[in-house]
């Protein structure tokens, strides 16, 4: 059983109204279309023993598991937890002046101030306001 055999049905059940697209020839394995055009699509690739999650125009990370017998289930749990937080705007991402993604972390009080001249902050639904 591949990771996608477990991941795809779980994502379809958990996020039925997010416009998820499943691989067509020559495409990524799973795509969630961006809620805001500046954010970019969320893309998931099956890498065999792990998945790679491309988080819009900002960052990517790998999700794997050491125990092969339950790897697909554990990877799916981790991916769903992250997507729950991302889609609920509980994760903030940022980029620099040139637009390159610089990172992501859970959203907290530091994000009330919003973006600065040197760094723009985003959540899934779009950019946070700039300082005034």
Structural commentary:
By secondary structure, the chain is α+β, with helices and mostly antiparallel strands. The chain has two domains: 3-87, no CATH class; 91-127, no CATH class. Helix content is 22%, strand content 31%. The protein is built from two helices and nine strands; from the N terminus they run αβββββαββββ. The strands form two sheets. A five-stranded antiparallel beta sheet has the order 1-2-3-4-5, covered by helices on one side. Strands 7-6-8-9 form a four-stranded antiparallel beta sheet. Helix 1 runs parallel beside helix 2. The longest helix has 17 residues, at 71-87. It is globular, with a radius of gyration of 16 Å. The model has no long low-confidence stretch (mean pLDDT 86).
Tell me the layout of helices and strands.
Elements: H1 3-14, E1 21-22, E2 30-32, E3 42-46, E4 50-55, E5 59-64, H2 71-87, E6 91-96, E7 101-106, E8 119-123, E9 126-127
Antiparallel strand pairs: 1-2, 2-3, 3-4, 4-5, 6-7, 6-8, 8-9
Helix pairs in contact: 1-2
């Amino acid at each position: 059983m591949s990771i996608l055999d477990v991941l795809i049905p779980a994502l379809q059940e958990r996020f039925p109204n997010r416009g998820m697209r499943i691989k067509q020839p020559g495409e990524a394995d799973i795509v969630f279309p961006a809620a805001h055009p500046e954010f970019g699509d969320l893309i998931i690739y099956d890498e065999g023993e792990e998945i790679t999650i491309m988080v819009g125009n900002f960052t990517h990370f790998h999700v794997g598991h050491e125990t092969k017998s339950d790897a697909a289930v554990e990877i799916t749990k981790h991916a769903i937890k992250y997507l729950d937080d991302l889609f609920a705007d509980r994760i903030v991402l940022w980029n620099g002046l040139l637009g390159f993604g610089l990172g992501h972390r859970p959203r907290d009080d530091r994000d009330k101030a919003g973006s600065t001249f040197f760094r723009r902050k985003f959540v899934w639904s779009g950019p946070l306001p700039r300082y005034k």
